[in-house]
From TrEMBL:
Region (Disordered) location: 1-68
Keywords tagged on the record: Membrane, Transmembrane, Transmembrane helix
InterPro entries, A to Z: Srf1 (IPR037737)
GO cellular component entries: cell periphery; fungal-type vacuole
Protein name: Uncharacterized protein
Transmembrane segments: 170-191, 211-229, 250-270, 308-332
Organism: Cryoendolithus antarcticus
PANTHER family in UniProt: REGULATOR OF PHOSPHOLIPASE D SRF1 (PTHR36819)
Top-level taxon of the source organism: Eukaryota
Tagged with keyword Transmembrane helix: yes
Biased composition (Polar residues): 7-16
């Protein structure tokens, strides 16, 4: 036992020295670590080497497609036998696969009466999909005013007609076209009537053309060909989904521009009706208002046409607003 005591004393005396050693001083490699004799510095970082890429330029006499010339024959690349014979050769191979196809001899052709008795859906004619009736019962009882189901069905039918019927935009465009042409014609008659008054024999009978007349002539002259082009483009050109974002935006903004000009034209037309210094002023009203003389004597013919122009412009503005709203909703419905 004295040897064990000696080892314990030696380990006790060596432990403080080991603890006091600098941890940064490298220690010797243990004998069980295998080191190749050819590798002198195994732990030093090696310099990075770039990847070696072999570049072999093509030969100068290289011609694509000439490699397999020795295997070419003079026979045309056509089937030497009918297709049915080639199918017979490969029928066994195809049937042995995991998904064999249906062979003609495994089926039977049934008559029309058998199909009508066993598959009655084949005898039904084509029917348009009724989205409004998809989740509704077939028969709805009760008055429409007191039946929420019937009211809901009517609302859904209305929105389906408004958003998916191809003739709804045509109806609104034709309405805008009709009233744009009517406003253009009325503005032309007012301009002609003012011209006749200014060139008659009475020198004091002078009348000034109002801004609403010029505005109606300009807007109407541009709106009529524009509506015709947009109507043709909507039915004859490519769908909205195939157009660019700029084309879709311009298609909607053009209607908005005409709405702005129609609204300003309507305000000018109502201002001409309310102006006591123009053709519609009252006979008993003083023509000289605030030192400004009358610009047109009382003329019932011009005044009646101005009233008609104001009414037509009002309906035209409503038609433009409805057309713009329907166009936006249909575009959103198609592109969502």
């Amino acid at each position: 036992m004295p040897e064990m005591a000696q080892r314990a004393s030696s380990s006790a005396t060596a432990s403080p020295e080991t603890d006091e050693r600098d941890p940064h001083i490298p220690s010797s490699i243990p004998p069980w670590v295998h080191i190749s004799s050819s590798d002198s510095t195994p732990f030093l970082p090696q310099p990075s080497r770039p990847n070696t890429r072999h570049y072999k330029p093509p030969p100068s006499h290289y011609k694509p497609g000439r490699k397999w010339d020795g295997y070419r024959t003079a026979e045309p690349a056509l089937l030497s036998a009918p297709i049915a014979e080639h199918q017979v050769r490969w029928a066994g191979f195809m049937d042995s696969g995991p998904n064999p196809g249906v062979r003609e001899e495994e089926g039977r052709s049934m008559g029309a009466q058998w199909m009508a008795d066993n598959v009655p859906i084949t005898t039904r004619a084509w029917e348009a999909e009724d989205e409004a009736r998809a989740d509704m019962p077939e028969t709805l009882t009760g008055w429409w005013l007191f039946s929420p189901e019937r009211q809901e069905r009517t609302v859904r039918l209305f929105w389906r007609l408004l958003l998916k019927n191809p003739f709804i935009p045509l109806l609104f465009r034709l309405t805008c076209l009709a009233f744009a042409g009517a406003s253009l014609g009325l503005a032309g008659t007012i301009y002609r009537a003012v011209y006749n008054v200014n060139h008659d024999a009475i020198a004091d009978n002078q009348c000034a053309t109002r801004a609403s007349t010029y505005m109606a002539l300009i807007v109407g002259a541009v709106a009529v060909p524009y509506i015709g082009y947009v109507t043709w483009d909507e039915y004859m050109s490519k769908p909205l989904g195939l157009r660019s974002a700029v084309a879709k935006t311009l298609l909607l903004l053009c209607d908005l521009y005409f709405i702005v000009f129609s609204a300003s034209n309507l305000s000018l037309a109502f201002d001409a009706l309310d102006d006591h210094r123009w053709a519609c002023f009252d006979d008993g009203y003083d023509a000289n208002v605030a030192g400004v003389g009358a610009t047109c004597p009382n003329n019932p013919s011009i005044c009646s046409r101005q009233r008609a122009l104001s009414g037509v412009l009002l309906i035209s503005l409503v038609a433009w607003l409805a057309t713009f709203s329907v166009s936006v909703m249909r575009v959103v419905e198609k592109l969502r």
